[in-house]
Write a structure and sequence with these properties.
It is elongated and about 65 Å long. The protein has a five-stranded antiparallel beta sheet, covered by helices on one side. 26% of the residues lie in helices and 23% in strands. Helix 1 crosses helix 2. The chain contains two helices and five strands.
């Protein structure tokens, strides 16, 4: 096999960070899909008028007042990543029953709508 290289001084070897036509090449960056999903959920909730706080370490977004937040968590469900809604543990309620799956991670707006609805119910009841 013969491999030919362009002559010295050729712009393709210069390593100047520019792609075709002198336009800077896009830097190689890796996007963390969980962080992206959390930011998307927080943005969706804020767009609906709800205070939202992201926690990338735990993979959750707290929605609503800090005293009684609804938690949106990213957790596996049915072989995919889903949004789950969790609320503070209550006496007599097993931890396994303290949350419900809302929607696949790709349907953030559906999950946000359900969280906003849950917040409106807890605000009226509380």
């Amino acid at each position: 096999m013969t491999v030919e290289t362009p002559p010295a001084g050729n712009p393709s070897l210069a390593g100047n960070g520019h792609g075709d036509r002198g336009v800077p090449a896009e830097p190689l960056c890796r996007v963390d899909p969980v962080a992206l999903a959390l930011r998307g959920m927080a943005a969706e909730l804020r767009a609906r008028g709800v205070e939202a706080r992201e926690d990338g370490v735990s993979g959750l977004v707290d929605a609503g007042p800090t005293s009684r937040p609804q938690r949106a968590l990213l957790r596996p469900h049915r072989g995919d990543l889903w949004w789950w809604m969790r609320w503070p543990l209550q006496d007599g309620v097993p931890p396994a029953l303290s949350g419900v799956p809302l929607s696949p991670v790709t349907r953030t707006s559906d999950a946000a709508r359900r969280i906003v609805r849950a917040l409106s119910v807890t605000t009226r009841d509380g």
